[in-house]
Structure formats: structure tokens, C-alpha cells
Amino acid sequence: MSTDFQAAFDEEQTDDAEFKPLPEGEHVCTLLEVKQETNPFDQSPQTSLTYQVRADQPYGGRRIWDTVKHDDKVAWKAASIHKGFSLEGKPTGWNEWFQGIRGCIGKACKVVVANRQGQDKVYTNVRRVRVHDDLPF
Predict the structure, then answer these.
(1) 25 — alpha (psi -120 to 50), left (phi > 0) or beta?
(2) What would the pLDDT profile of 36-81 be if each residue is shown by its tens digit?
């Protein structure tokens, strides 16, 4: 009896093998990780968020990554994530925003993604995050 698992071993492997991009649209996820780090290109601070598609959903277990540079030019993105997790009030700065979002680890959310073509591959971008009461935490 052949399975998808067994069939994967019949395929020729290449050095650049990787997951295909998630389909555009909404995916039910859990916020898995939130961390502050330094952007490797310009050494500016940023927050990285990792979402994981819930196991009971199509593409279960797949991860979605998002990054928010700590730059006032993209404060709109930080505000969108803050509101998407139904956090109240206005953080006084990037560190307070980070602490609030980090407090959402483990929460279920709906992540809307869109794909864009880079020079050598397709990248999945987070467009919106929303938390709904009908999703258990």
C-alpha cells in the first residue's frame, strides 16, 4: 500500500528543495513565537512573529513568518497586528508594543496571506491578523 509519505521517497531531491508557498487567503493559526532581533541587512531592531497553521486545518503544521521593523514608517503594521489581536490602548513605544504582542503567544488567530514573486522564489507575506471569539485558545 503506497502512501504520500512513501511517495516522497521516490521523488528526486534537489539542494533547493523547500515547501511550496501557502495558498493566498486566510489560514487558522496559533501565534507560536514573538522575538526581538536585529535586522541582518541594516542592523535595525525588529520583531519577528511566527504563526503555525493549526493541525486540524489544511496545511496543518506549516509556519508563517512575519517581521516588523521598529521604524515609525511601518508603525501602521504594528498597529494592525495590535488591533488584530484585540489588544486595547496605545503602546507608548516599540518595547511596550512587543511586550503586548508577546503576551498573545498561544492565541488562535486567522492570518491572511498573499504571495509575491521575488527574483528567485515566491514569498508569503502576512496581510492581516484577526482574533475571533469562535476560535479556542
Answers:
(1) left
(2) 999 999 999 999 999 999 999 999 999 999 999 999 999 999 999 9
